[in-house]
Amino acid sequence: MNTGEEIKKMVQDKYAEIANQSKDDNTVSCCGVGGCSTVDYAIFAEDYSKLKGYNESADLGLGCGIPTEFAQLKEGDKVLDLGSGAGNDCFVARAIVGNSGKVIGVDMTDLMIEKARENAEKLNFNNVEFRKGDIENLPIGGNSIDVVISNCVLNLVPDKQKAFTETFRVLKQGGHFSVSDVVLKGNLPEKLKNDAEMYAGCVSGAIQLDEYLNIIKQTGFVNIVVQKEKPILLPDEILSQYLSQDEIKRYKTENIFGIFSVTVFAEKPLCKPNSGCCS
After folding, report:
1. Which is it for strands 145-151 and 78-82: parallel, antiparallel or unpaired?
2. 4-267 maps to CATH 3.40.50.150
3. Stated pTM of the model
């Protein structure tokens, strides 16, 4: 079994490779991971092209949602994007928070940071910043961020508890996050899950939705809401190896088990429960 550091190194190496690929290459190669010629390019990626602030050179087609759509951003907010890639969500967020706001992107891959900074420089933005860092140990001061966003990244983080603990730390009291991610629901045969990971690399590291939400709750967040849920449909050629025809029908129509992209919202309370700060 790979250790957390080994997993991070594999993710870092893969996303360094992705940084040098075009959006077209990434969207037909399973969230950029390659080897899946039959994949539907829309299996995860959402269409950003009509959003204010969209910049084509920053869109690598790697997301599984549009967290800014649900993040309740407002002018003047200070926003943090976890796993910011080439800057796509950061630039969309910047269009909402305006000149009086600030957007910080954190990514652990040098080539992604370089690409994002080049894009920001071309756009002449002085309130969008990209920092190299680890989501489990963010290079951000505590209680300093209004809104955290992330797009199809946290499922790749080995220690999700640490990631959400760091998110909690950097948010101001009363701040919130809206993150898009990949999760599982119900019991998937292990071999089916393995094949799904080969078909769509973003499935790697995904955990059960209930477990995902429970980690968020245990971290201290409140008002936890699944803002959007979309099933990720695998092709029959994979499903038929592990499921009966009746199970395939249920998989496609009932949404009670399978792989899903979700966007989740939660708030940091004005004071942490049982901290004594409100007494």
Report:
1. parallel
2. yes
3. 0.84
Residue whose pair of structure tokens reads 């080969």 in the numeric block: 198
Over residues 169-200, the pLDDT tens digits come to 999 999 999 999 999 998 887 778 777 776 66
Q: Is 93 helix (H, G, I), strand (E, B) or coil?
A: helix
Q: How many CB atoms lie within 10 A of CB 264?
A: 26
CA atoms within 13 A on the CB side of 213: 15
| Amino acid occupying residue 34 | G
Q: Is the pLDDT of residue 27 over 80?
A: no
Q: Please, are residues 223 and 267 in contact by the beta-carbon 8 Å criterion?
A: yes
**Rounded distance, CA 278 to CA 252, Å?**
48
Sorted by where each begins, the domain ranges of the chain are: 4-267
**Beta-sheet strands, E only, within the chain:** 78-82, 102-107, 128-132, 145-151, 171-185, 222-232, 258-267
